[in-house]
């Protein structure tokens, strides 16, 4: 009788031991999932690049262009006369545009003079593909370089391309895009 | 012996007096040589880098269409086609000012949405040619801005069914090619 009781006890202990291993495996899996979730969260918060879709926004971007700098000597507050409901914009630029693939930057010289009464957005387009899109360029500011959109560098090889600078105009209060936009055909030198 | 030494010393001193004369000859020679060196300077002409400055002033580009009045026809039991439909605002203008160092050609094109049965017409076939603002062949003179105005109109027969963004107008700015001959 006592033998049977001891045998039963041993089996129960084995069962408890087996259940302990399962729990350990379960806990390890839970821990791995937790670590993976934390890793994804950290990557999304600190390392994920913004979604550069390259679509032309219908409303002015919230963020001003980070590469923008004040136009030297352009401290006038005299604005161009603008018809009701219309707009008046000036553009200052040269036609020298280069793209550095390794730096993932475009070098250009484009300004929205202080006399303009619209914000601008500048794109560099080659063969209908938007490679560069600025943030909001407010009057009195210019850019001498812009970052390539995510993945744009992979689409380019060193050489010359016929492209264009596209300029979109946005209302400074409502952010609405004007029906009118401008294009400046340029030859773009792409270098490694 | 002392007398002989004194005489020799006196002769040596007298001979040494002529040394300054020899020195004068040596200073003359280098001066003449320096005068014969050619001095030259190179000159790179001023490199004029073209810059563009273009101003666009545009009116409110909103075209307004009134569909007119449709009346019920008891005979046909249908609504008759509206009468007096018209574009009440059918034109807009864009003024272009060129303050660039080069002449520009400004070409207007549009991209009208397929849903809108609208055609836009432009004066001068949609092309403005504006001369450079600087004075040709006189880089020291003060130039003057050049300007022109484009009128955009809705073509006859254009119709829309509802209020909509009918599309975009693109202003393409290129350098005017130099004229031959």
Helix/strand order of chain A: HEEEEEEEEE
Give a quick account of the main beta sheet of chain B: strands, pairing sense, barrel closure.
Answer: 4 strands, antiparallel
Query: How much beta of chain B, percentage-wise?
Result: 25-35%
Averaged pLDDT of chain A, please?
A: 87
Shape designation of chain B? rod-shaped
Q: Largest chain interface and its two residue counts?
A: A-B, 26 and 25 residues
Q: Could you name the key traits of this structure?
A:
heterodimer, A: 192 residues, alpha+beta, Immunoglobulin-like, 2 domains, 9-stranded mixed beta sheet, 9 strands, 24% helix, B: 181 residues, 4-stranded antiparallel beta sheet, 3-stranded antiparallel beta sheet, 2 helices, 17% helix, 33% strand, rod-shaped
Describe the structure.
The complex is a heterodimer of chains A (192) and B (181). By secondary structure, chain A is α+β, with helices and mostly antiparallel strands. Chain A has 2 domains: 48 residues; 123 residues, Immunoglobulin-like (Sandwich). Chain A contains 1 helix and 9 strands. In chain A, a hairpin with a 2-residue loop joins strand 5 and strand 6. Chain A is elongated, with a radius of gyration of 30 Å. The N and C termini of chain A lie far apart (88 Å). In chain B, a hairpin with a 4-residue loop joins strand 3 and strand 4. The relative contact order of chain B is 0.17. Helices cover 17% and strands 33% of the residues of chain B. Chain B has 181 residues and is an alpha+beta fold. At the A-B interface, strand 2 and strand 9 of A face strand 1 and strand 11 of B. Strand 9 of chain A pairs parallel with strand 11 of chain B.
Short description, anyone?
By secondary structure, chain A is an alpha+beta fold. Chain A contains 1 helix and 9 strands, in the order αβββββββββ.
């Amino acid at each position: 009788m006592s033998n049977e009781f001891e045998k039963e006890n041993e089996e129960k202990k084995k069962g408890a031991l087996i259940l302990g291993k399962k729990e350990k495996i379960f806990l390890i899996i839970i821990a791995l999932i937790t670590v993976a979730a934390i890793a994804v969260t950290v990557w999304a918060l600190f390392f994920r690049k913004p979604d550069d879709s390259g679509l032309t926004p219908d409303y002015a971007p919230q963020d001003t262009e980070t590469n923008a700098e004040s136009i030297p000597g352009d401290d006038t507050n005299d604005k161009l006369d603008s018809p009701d409901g219309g707009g008046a914009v000036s553009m200052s630029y040269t036609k020298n545009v280069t793209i550095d693939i390794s730096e993932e930057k475009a070098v250009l010289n484009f300004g929205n003079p202080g006399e303009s009464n619209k914000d601008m957005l500048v794109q560099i387009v080659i063969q209908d593909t938007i490679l560069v899109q600025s943030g909001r360029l407010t009057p009195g500011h210019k850019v001498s370089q812009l970052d390539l959109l995510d993945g744009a560098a992979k689409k380019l090889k060193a050489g010359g391309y016929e492209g264009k600078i596209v300029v979109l105009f946005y209302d400074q209060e409502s952010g609405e895009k004007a029906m009118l936009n401008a294009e400046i055909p340029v030859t773009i030198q792409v270098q490694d | 012996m002392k007398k002989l030494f004194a005489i020799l010393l006196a002769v040596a001193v007298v001979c040494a007096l002529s040394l300054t004369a020899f020195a004068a000859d040596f200073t003359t020679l280098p001066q003449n040589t320096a005068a014969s060196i050619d001095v030259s300077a190179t000159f790179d002409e001023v490199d004029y880098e073209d810059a563009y400055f273009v101003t666009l002033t545009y009116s409110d580009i909103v075209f307004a269409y009134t569909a007119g009045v449709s009346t019920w026809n008891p005979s046909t039991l249908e609504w008759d086609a509206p009468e007096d439909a018209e574009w009440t605002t059918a034109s807009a203008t864009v003024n272009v000012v060129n303050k660039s160092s080069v002449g520009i050609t400004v070409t207007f094109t549009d991209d009208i949405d397929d849903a809108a049965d609208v055609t836009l017409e432009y004066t001068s076939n949609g092309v403005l040619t504006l001369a450079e603002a600087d004075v040709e062949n006189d880089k020291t003179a003060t130039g003057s801005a050049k300007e022109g105005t484009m009128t955009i109109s809705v073509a006859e027969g254009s119709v829309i069914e509802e209020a909509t963004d009918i599309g975009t107008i693109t202003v393409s700015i290129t350098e005017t090619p130099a004229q031959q001959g």
